[in-house]
Amino acid sequence: MKRHLPAAVVAGWGLLNGVLLAVLAVYGESAMVYWLWGGVVLVLELAALAVLSSSRTAPDQHVRYHVPDRGAGAVPPAAIGLLLVALCFVYGRWLLFVAVPLLVLAVALAARGTTARER
After folding, report:
1. I need a surface site. Which of 20, 66, 74, 108 has the fewest CB within 10 A?
2. Which element (helix H / strand E) includes 34?
3. Phi/psi of residue 6, each to 5°?
4. Residue-wise over 54-66: b if at least 16 C-beta within 10 A, else e?
């Protein structure tokens, strides 16, 4: 099961959406909602099958990829920080308390590199 965990996660996500579809059926939504949500459940389960077949044909060991640029590890915190800064215009300035430390972390990672082994 450990080897096929990604397929189980995607399948579980699809099953959760199936449960939510059943809840919508209890409350009597329109037919268009059933078709759209049912299509999402179908696409998720097909993606789970694709992930499962990919994990069965892939090698047993995971490949560790090296990031070519030293400061590339700064991109995810910078992107999330900038997203939170943009959301400050909608939800208020309190998001700056989360965004600013992420941006400081991104600057530090860009300046010093991602790991200690890069030196």
Report:
1. 66
2. helix 31-57
3. -60, -40
4. eeeeeeeeeeeee
Q: At 2, phi and psi to the nearest 5?
A: -65, -35
- Three-state DSSP state, 2: coil
pLDDT digits 0-9 by tens, 25-65:
898 888 898 899 889 889 988 888 888 887 777 665 566 66
Q: Rounded to whole angstroms, what are the CA distances from 58 to 48, 50, 63, 65?
A: 15, 12, 11, 16
- Say whether pTM exceeds 0.90: no
Report which DSSP code applies to 92: -
Burial of 81 (0-12, 13-18, 19+ CB in 10 A): buried
CA distance 107 to 104: 5
CB 73 within 8 A of CB 117: no
How far is residue 118's CA from residue 76's CA, in Å, rounded to a whole number?
19
